Amino acid sequence: MNDLDDLTSQVLENCAISDSRHAGLYSVCGLALRLRDLYKWEKGLDPWVEMDSSEILDWIGEKEESWDLLEEKEFRDITILDRRYDPFDAKGINAVLEPHGFLYGAGYVHSLKPSFFLALLEEKRLVDGYPVYILGKELARDLLTMPALAQEDSILIRREAAKLFLWDLIFFIKKSARGALRFALESYGVKEQDSEALRSNLARISAAEIETYIYHELGEIRDTVFDRDIWRDIIASFPHTPIELLARVVKDLLADTNEHGKLHHIMRERKAASLALHAAFLDGLRKELFPELKDAFQAFMETDNWQVIEEAISTGYYRAKEYAEVMCSLFRKGRQKNDMKWVEVEMGKRLLSPLGIGKTEGKESESEKHFTEEEHNGNHTDQSPGPG
Fold first, then answer.
1. Which residues are 103's β-sheet partners?
2. pTM
3. What does the pLDDT read at residue 370?
4. How would residue 386 be classed by pLDDT, with cut points 50, 70 and 90?
5. Which residues contact 287 (CB under 8 A, 6 or more apart)?
6. pLDDT score of 380 more than 80
7. Among 220, 293, 309, which residue's Cα sits nearest to residue 258?
8. Residues facing residue 148 across a β-bridge
């Protein structure tokens, strides 16, 4: 495309506007980690490269100064071949871009933060009847390092982001999850302590895990338990609250545990390494809602018995199903009452309080702790339409 540089500039500007408006959503640590990823992308660095802190701090200072100039600015329309598109009209924009080998992403993610990116299209294929786009070099992106997302009923896999995402999860792994991580890496022929081997094999491991991202998104698209419209209305009604967090985690758990999703795919294909990575990276509220997987995987490492994994998946699915049904029921009743405060109170009493979320303990509430863990995981792999 002759105007590719101009298009990239337009998308980058909207990325910066979104980041400037929503940087305050994140904890100090969460924002620092996201800026670290953005810096590596801008500079074309490999995921494992760590630059001098003074250089990064100078870059962050410049980034924040540029954000200050954009905070009140509106998103600009995307102009392609003299035609203007709403920046959230990904379908219309991609109708023009896809034949030229590019793909555009736009939507609302965690806390209704707008998110945009532009990437080269490497491959398109059908999986279970759904189009899957494998993306290569990213020309524009924002703070979010998302390896995959569903855009309408299509699945987008971001290779560059997926590799950085995987490195971050490995780099920040908790001590309690190191056994599962060690099992996964050794299944891929890499010793955990061999950092050079990990660096040289990261692209291979990341590529091998693409199928698990695809099936997570398929599980989400094909989920019939958590009504998609109600889920989106809940997200729009309670952004950046424990209710939003719970809705997203329940949706993710359903996507992973239903018959179309990630964990059933892993079982069918006997992908022990992928199972180990899933167990290693299960954290925060996801771990609390799906505690069976930890014990099941421990037994699996000793016995290689997939039956214990299947039983754990079934338990996790029915628990997520119960949470989803209660959330939908309460939201419908609240909408009939025209009383979202009632919904907030009832969800707090029936769903959040038993999980210890929303209660203040010292200087940091449990909900804030979970939000921080979600930020560290970076695991926001959906792009839902925005409010209204």
1. 119
2. 0.92
3. 41
4. low
5. 294
6. no
7. 220
8. 157
Mean pLDDT of the chain: 91
Contacts of 132 (CB under 8 A, 6+ apart): 124, 125, 126, 154, 155, 156, 157, 214
In Å, how far are 7, 68, 372 from 65, measured between CA atoms? Answer: 23, 5, 25
Tokens of 178: 């190191």
Q: Where are the beta strands (DSSP E) in the chain?
A: 78-80, 83-85, 102-108, 114-127, 130-140, 148-151, 154-158, 360-361, 364-365
Q: E strand or H helix at 376, and its extent?
A: helix 366-377
> What CA–CA distance (Å, rounded) separates 180 from 3?
47
Q: 331-357: per-residue pLDDT in tens?
A: 999 999 999 999 999 999 999 999 998
pLDDT tens-digit series, residues 79-126? 999 999 999 999 999 999 999 999 999 999 988 999 999 999 999 999
Q: Which residues contact 196 (CB under 8 A, 6 or more apart)?
A: none
d(CA 58, CA 37): 15
DSSP string, 58-95: HHHHHHHHHHHHHTTPPPPPEEETTEEE-TT-HHHHHH
Alpha carbons 194 and 186: distance in angstroms, whole number? 11
Ramachandran assignment for 128, one of left (phi > 0), alpha (psi -120 to 50 degrees), beta (any other): left
User: Would you say residue 168 has pLDDT above 80?
Assistant: yes
What's the pLDDT at 193? 77
Q: Read off the pLDDT of residues 210-239 as tens digits, 9 standing for 90 and up.
A: 999 999 999 999 999 999 999 999 999 999
For the packed helices 228-237 and 242-257, what is the interaxial angle rounded to 10 degrees?
A: 160
Rounded distance, CA 109 to CA 339, Å?
25
Buried (b) or exposed (e) across 243-279, using 16+ Cβ within 10 A? bbbbbbbbbbbbbbbbebbbbbbbeeeebbbbbbbbb
**CA-based angle 59:35:23, to the nearest 5?**
105
CA-nearest of 101, 76, 100, 99 to 89 is: 76
Q: Is the dihedral of CA 280, 286, 291, 292 positive or negative?
A: negative
SS (H, E, C) 188-209: CCCCCCCHHHHHHHHHHHHHHC
